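Exercise 7.
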Amino acid sequence: MTLAAAPRNEAFRGPRQNHQAALLYYLAGVGLLCLMDAAVKDIAGRYPTVEVAFLRYVAGLFVIGAVVAWIRPGWPSRQLVFANILRSGVMALLSITFFFSLTALPLAEAVALSFLSPAFLALFGAWLLREKLSPRIGLALGVGFLGVLVIIGGKLGQATYGPLALWGAGAALISAVLYALSLVMLRARAQQDSIPLMVLVLHVGTTLLLLVPAMIVWQPPTAGDGLIFAATGVFGTGGHLLLANAFARSQAGRLAPFEYTALIWAAALGYAVFGEMPGLATILGAGFIIGSALIAGRSKAT
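Solution. The predicted structure, written as tokens, is:
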């Protein structure tokens, strides 16, 4: 059956265990999430972090609501609702910690610190989903992490970090663990449930969890900033849909090393938007990161 003749929901399901398609979805999703990070960094210094996280999910609700209205996938099952309510708590904490790190650190550095997440992703996938962790995947993770150390090692050792930056670094590391956990939870349900319904329930749950804290510290956004908040919803929700499609088609461990490609996005956006010039260490580290992705791409499904 061709895509044109298939039910609308089939566009968000597709053939299972297709690693090449999964990789394309994953890389595109990572790129959209990096665009969201850049938008958040631009706006986060002007509003409380909890409010930024809340408005990102409010804007995302309109996006995923339109997708669900177009596809009409039916009603979510009780299992889907329960699983994604649990994941909503993880995503609320993840958004707060990572968005805070963006206010305290350069974009590329915050993203680099979050790159512990692929290692945790592969480990959580092996532990919770019983996915086999092959030696090649382990090598790819190690090479990618070496690239991260090359990029941030000198900066962390030489720069004089104030208390805010230290808190930001700690928040980025916490967000790395939470991000990996959220993706494994996504992988656990992505092959069973309607992806748009998963994303919709997640957005509803996370919005409700952040509502009261956001109202306590609320600052009315300007019209211009409202457009940026809308962009965070488009980029974040679009990226989430793409990642969900990727995890419906391939194992968490095989996709994990490609998370490192976000550093290339972050370095480019940091330069283009915030004037953060990538140095020699960033270029060298990016070479290791690209190498890790190539190694992972040659691994065989288990």
